[in-house]
Write a structure and sequence with these properties.
The chain is mainly α and 72 residues long. It contains three helices and no strands.
Length: 72
């Protein structure tokens, strides 16, 4: 739950990170009425988004998978 307007961008960023992370899924943010009713200033801009890095297999795991496929 958000209590101060100044922390909103950081909290929203963390919520999006969690929702888009390894165990992606839904996220929920509870806004108190006084914060939800505030007007957004023209200087408030969305934070830049960083795409999560996709995991890459190691050469060893690729070689192991190839061996398993050939053995099958």
């Amino acid at each position: 739950m958000m209590m101060e307007r100044e922390s909103n961008p950081e909290i929203i960023r963390k919520v999006f990170q969690e929702a888009q992370g390894h165990n992606s899924g839904g996220a929920f943010v509870c806004l108190p009425e006084n914060i939800a009713a505030e007007m957004v200033e023209d200087t408030d801009r969305p934070l830049s988004m960083r795409r999560p890095a996709l995991p890459r297999p190691t050469e060893a795991s690729i070689d192991y998978a190839v061996r398993l496929i050939h053995e099958y």
